[in-house]
Structures are given as C-alpha cells and as structure tokens.
C-alpha cells in the first residue's frame, strides 16, 4: 500500500497566484525526489459548517480560500527518505514568513491508506 501526506490550509484570495506558483514548484521538487502523485485543490463546494467544516478547521476568513492537497508515495519508508531530500532541496529555501499563507493554521499529517481502488 502507498502512503499519503495530507494538507489543509487557507490562502488569501489576493495571493492565489503566488500560492499556485509555490505549489507548481513544490510539485516539481516532490516528484523529482520520488513522490508518485502531488495534488493541490482550491475549495469549490465547502460550506461553512455549524460545528465543523474545512473553513472552520483552518479558521478561514471571508477573504481566504481553503486549499486541500495531498502527496502520494510508494510507502512510509519512501516518504521518509523523500522528505529528507525535499527538506534539503535548495529550490525550497526561504523564510516561511514569505509564504503566501499563514503556516500556523496549516493542518497536515501522514496517512496509511486502507482502501485503494
């Protein structure tokens, strides 16, 4: 079975183009180091829930859009090795303060699939 890293974050609407540029670079870096899939999605049908929702999870404001993304690897072991290479890749150097989103509100984690169809 594969292994998946998932991400959820809010991007200011005025910074979507900058985020897309960052995501395109990220896709190149992760794929160059062995990721088998890299997907970035902008919210299209994500209502603000009364108790919980994607926008609530990342404290999205009215001027932000939710981004849901994931990276697929062959295995957890591959993911761990790829992440070491990605984190050392000079293409990703830079201060997180320059990111086009608030990294403190990003939710992320690694997941072991139990169904793959």
Description:
The structure is a single chain. With 117 residues, the chain is an alpha+beta fold. It has one domain (3-94, 104-111): 2-Layer Sandwich (Alpha-Beta Plaits), CATH 3.30.70. The chain contains three helices and four strands; from the N terminus they run βαβαβαβ. The chain has helices at residues 16-32, 54-57, 76-88; strands at residues 3-12, 37-42, 64-73, 107-111. The protein has a four-stranded antiparallel sheet. The longest helix is centred in the N-terminal third of the chain and has 17 residues, at 16-32. The termini are close together.
Summarize the structure.
This protein has 117 residues and is of the alpha+beta class.
CATH architecture: 2-Layer Sandwich
Give the helix/strand class. alpha+beta
Order of helices and strands: EHEHEHE
CATH fold descriptor: Alpha-Beta Plaits
| Estimated radius of gyration | 15 Å
Largest sheet: 4 strands, antiparallel
Overall morphology: globular
Low-confidence stretches are: none
- Counting DSSP H or I runs of 4 or more residues, the number of helices is 3
Query: First CA to last CA: what distance?
Result: 11 Å
CATH class: Alpha Beta
Keywords:
four-stranded antiparallel β-sheet, 3 helices, alpha+beta, Alpha-Beta Plaits, 4 strands, DUF1428, 117 residues
Topology:
Blueprint: E1 3-12, H1 16-32, E2 37-42, H2 54-57, E3 64-73, H3 76-88, E4 107-111
Antiparallel strand pairs: 1-3, 1-4, 2-3
